[in-house]
Design goal:
Length: 302
């Protein structure tokens, strides 16, 4: 059985995703949001409970070693399908959810089989494999905080959208043009809620709203277990970085509500990417608490 007491392999998660339309035929459709270099699907689900809703896009696993990202994303899918909590039900039923737990499946498989701390895609290079998929999107590509050196962890790739994952995912997202109300990307670690921009210290047009909504979401996240998040624009709150999926969704696709979560833990003691599995459920719970508050506050601000 598939549960949230341990981390799963890609095959286990894909089998679980493929089981969902049979169990919830009225509410789940499988989506293939793109392809990977090694030929895997970027498999996800569309959750829909009523017609006429706007869409929210949720992406996990763009960095292969950040296992809590995909685990939190599948936790959210499961809660939206099974929870009887009124706030979670209201949130689930307010949007069409396009949710892809592993947008870098090749990298994730590699972290299970060879190198637990692999970050990038697995495309062929001259000296080193892979590009940082979160530096490869075509919005202010390679301007800042992204490397031209193939072996760097933040290698931006040969060109914008050189990676088949970002190319195909961005094409899929483009087909939803105008429908996407929010775009959320899950990473780890550091306990941050980040929003555009990453390429400049200039504030995004709705910076103040994004800060306010983020602070309300972070306050809600802290209630259950006291987990503290810091909220801010990428450039100031973490570091300059261009070519991320969230900045592209915001800057190129016009998605006004765009956040990157850096999930637990707060520090790199004992390798921050290796979060004990007994923290998957608490992380999922508090993150979902924050999403409930985030969408309530965003609605309030219009
Ligand atoms: O560097 C990154 O891609 C993210 N941090 S991580 O440690 N998980 O690698 C931060 C992404 C910042 N987000 C945006 N630029 N929107
Ligand atoms: Zn990351």
């Amino acid at each position: 059985i598939y549960d949230w007491s341990s981390y799963h392999t890609l095959d286990e998660t894909y089998d679980w995703l493929r089981s969902l339309p049979d169990k919830y035929p009225d509410n789940v459709e499988l989506i293939v949001a793109g392809k990977s270099y090694e030929g895997r699907d970027l498999l996800g689900v569309k959750l829909s409970f009523k017609s006429g809703n706007k869409a929210v896009f949720i992406e996990g696993g763009i960095h292969a070693r950040e296992w809590i990202s995909a685990a939190t994303v599948t936790y959210i899918i499961n809660q939206f399908l099974t929870s009887s909590n009124s706030q979670i039900r209201a949130l689930a039923e307010s949007f069409d959810w396009y949710i892809v737990p592993h947008v870098n499946p090749d990298g994730y498989v590699y972290t299970h089989q060879s190198d637990r701390v692999w970050r990038k895609t697995r495309s062929k290079g001259l000296l080193c494999k892979g590009a940082d998929a979160n530096r490869n999107f075509g919005f202010h590509w390679k301007e800042v905080g992204a490397s031209s050196i193939e072996c760097s962890e933040t290698y931006a790739g040969k060109s914008a959208f050189s990676e088949v994952e970002t190319q195909s995912l961005s094409q899929f997202i483009s087909t939803l043009q105008g429908q996407i109300y929010a775009y959320i990307s899950f990473h780890s670690f550091s306990q941050l809620m980040l929003f555009p921009y990453g390429h400049t210290k200039e504030h995004a047009p709705n910076h103040n709203d994004l800060q306010q909504i983020g602070e309300v979401a972070a306050a809600a996240l802290a209630v259950r277990y006291g987990t503290k998040y810091t909220v801010g624009n990428v450039y100031d709150a973490i570091y300059p970085a261009s070519g991320s999926s969230v900045d592209w969704a915001y800057g190129n696709q016009g998605v006004k509500l765009a956040y990157t979560y850096e999930l637990r833990p707060t520090s790199n003691a004992n390798n921050g990417f290796v979060l004990p599995a007994n923290q998957i459920i608490p992380t999922g719970e508090e993150t979902l608490d924050s999403l409930v508050a985030l969408f309530q506050e965003a609605k309030k601000l219009g």
